[in-house]
Design brief:
Elements (H helix, E strand, L loop, with lengths): L12 H8 L3 H8 L7 H14 L5 H8 L4 E6 L5 H4 L1 H15 L4 E6 L3 H12 L6 E4 L6 H9 L3 E4 L10 E5 L1 H14 L5 E5 L5 H14 L8 E3 L4 H14 L5 E4 L2 H13 L9 E3 L6 H4 L6 E3 L2 H16 L6 E4 L2 E3 L5
Helix pairs in contact: 1-2, 1-3, 6-14, 7-8, 9-10, 11-12
Length: 338
């Protein structure tokens, strides 16, 4: 007896519309993230999609709309920092989750060398992605100028120094956050407070130092300021330079948790206890801070919200909207190091 094989037909938008009791146009607007859909209709369509097993034909959609259905997560740093700095992985995870909810794909791109920058510029300018989530931008970063010239929709993580207003951005209140943690250290009785700032061509490096200086007021001393690159080794080296100049520092605010950890290592080598002799506070709370010994007092950035807002703002620009800047608050987290 000859066997017959039944091939199940792939569900279409027409099937979803019939199951939901709405028009095909309504289904299309829901699938493509349109706004002009009532909550009841959206719920009905989403339920029908689950019941029918419908999956979008992204290739056909891209041909019809001229869009790739994907965004680039662009890190303009050396490749090893993607794994060495925990903040990048948090942003990557949050962006991927935000896009998954929209049935879109995230493409990871790293451009830390001139060759990588040239390749990335060609890739994104060719329309392989609909826009760019720019991570860790520097004021002197040539890739940002290339993206703007090419007209690639872009959103920056942090204020894009030199390009404020030119592209969308999601930032935290850098100055206010630095003032808050410096105020906390001073309220604990510390007066010789040093800081390890980040690079001056990054928004965190520039504005966290501004906030620290404002809060210190007349007690601010230039000799109690050093800079690092946000990494642990640079924090250790910066702390060593501070100790070479003075021995009476009683607190340190580092512009990243990794630099705070490096500073603590140097202080311990010098025979100083944390927090008994020198209190140390960081910035980020990327998960590393809680597991460090001692656990770090720090300013917590809302990582999930930063990623979600970046995706939202970028999609607005892709849809023809004007670039906006969203500034988010941080939270002081008190732990053993201060």
């Amino acid at each position: 007896m000859e066997e017959t094989t039944t091939v199940r037909r792939r569900p279409t938008i027409r099937d979803v519309a019939a199951a939901a009791g709405v028009s095909r146009g309504t289904v299309s607007r829901v699938i493509n993230g349109g706004h002009w859909v009532s909550p009841d209709a959206r719920s009905a369509v989403e339920d029908a999609i689950r019941r029918t097993g419908y999956t979008a034909n992204h290739h056909a959609r891209s041909l019809a709309t001229g869009r790739a259905g994907s965004l680039a997560f662009l890190l303009t740093e050396p490749q090893h920092l993607l794994f060495a700095d925990p903040t990048f992985s948090l942003l990557l995870r949050g962006a991927a989750e935000a896009l998954a909810q929209r049935s879109m794909t995230l493409v990871l791109l790293v451009a830390g060398t001139p060759e990588e920058r040239a390749n990335v510029t060609h890739f994104v300018s060719a329309g392989h992605v609909d826009g760019v989530l720019l991570i860790s931008s520097h004021e002197s970063e040539p890739l940002l100028d290339a993206l703007l010239v090419a007209g690639v929709p872009t959103v920056s993580c942090g204020l894009p120094l030199g390009h404020q207003g030119d592209l969308a951005a999601v930032a935290v209140d850098e100055e206010g956050s630095a003032r808050a943690i410096t105020r906390y250290l001073r309220d604990r009785g510390h007066r010789r407070v040093a800081t390890i700032a980040g690079p001056d061509d990054t928004p965190g490096g520039r504005y966290r130092l501004v906030g620290f200086r404002q809060e210190m007021g007349e007690d601010f001393l230039p000799e109690l300021v050093e800079r690092g690159d946000y990494g642990r080794e640079s924090g250790a080296a910066a702390m060593a330079r501070l100790l070479e100049r003075t021995s009476d520092i009683d607190a340190v605010f580092a512009a990243s948790d990794m630099m705070a950890a490096g500073a603590i290592a140097t202080l311990r080598k010098a025979g100083l206890r944390v927090p008994e002799d020198v209190a140390v506070a960081g910035f980020d709370d990327s998960g590393f801070a809680a597991s460090h010994e001692p656990a770090l007092t720090t300013m917590r950035q809302p990582w999930d919200r930063i990623s979600a807002e970046m995706v939202t703002l970028l999609l607005e620009v892709i849809d023809g909207g004007s670039p906006r800047t969203v500034t988010l608050p941080t939270d002081l987290v008190v732990r053993e190091s201060a």
